[in-house]
Amino acid sequence: MLWQVAAAAVIGSLFYVRRVFTWVRDRFALRSARIAGYLFATLFALVASPLTLTLFGHTPLPRFSDLFLVGIALTAYLFTWDAAAYLLAIALAVSAWVLPPAGSFRIVGFAEWYHLGSFAAVSILIVCLIARLKARRKAASTEPAEEPELRMHGVAAGAD
Question: Is 120 helix (H, G, I), strand (E, B) or coil?
Fold first, then answer.
C-alpha cells in the first residue's frame, strides 16, 4: 500500500511539471517546443533511469516501465511526439539493461521480448492518441466562427 501511495504522489506531482518547465523555458528563452521537449525528455530520463535501477535493482517487477510510460505520455502531451519517441528509445534501452540477464543489453527469452514489445506498442499507441487529440484541438481552435445571423436563423428555424 505504501508503494501505491508513493506512486500516486509522484504521478500527481508530475502534473505540476508544466508550471515549473514553463518557468524554466521562459527564464532560459527556450521558445521551440521541439527543443524544450528533448530537454524535458533528457531530464526525465536522467531522473527516472537511476530511480528505476535503484528501486528495482536487477529484479524488475512486472510493470517497472510504468514510470517511463508516464514520462512518455507527459512529453507527448506537453511537447511533441518526436521528443516522446526519443524518451521511448531511452526507456527501451534502460529496460533492456534491467531485464535478465541483468547488466547487459542482451535480451534472452520470450517473456523479455514480450515485455519490451508490449511496452513499445502501448507507448506508441499513447503517443499517437495524444498527437491526434492535440491535432483535433488545434484544428477546432482555428476553425472560423459561424456568423451570428446564421446561427440565430438556424435556432429560429428549428424552433418552428
Answer: helix
Reported pTM: 0.69
What is the span of the domain harbouring residue 122? 32-137
Q: How far apart are alpha carbons 49 and 21 in whole angstroms?
A: 20
Distances (CA, A) of 6 to 9, 23, 116: 5, 26, 25
Buried b (16+ CB within 10 A) or exposed e, 61-84: eeebbebbbbbbbbbbebbbbbbb
Total domains, the chain = 1
Residue 22 lies in a domain: no
* pLDDT tens, per residue, the chain with 160 residues: 676 777 677 667 766 766 776 777 777 776 777 888 888 888 888 888 787 777 766 555 556 678 888 889 988 988 889 999 999 999 888 888 777 676 777 777 888 888 888 899 999 999 999 999 999 988 888 876 555 554 545 555 555 4
- Amino acid letter, residue 119: F
Residue 95 lies in a domain: yes
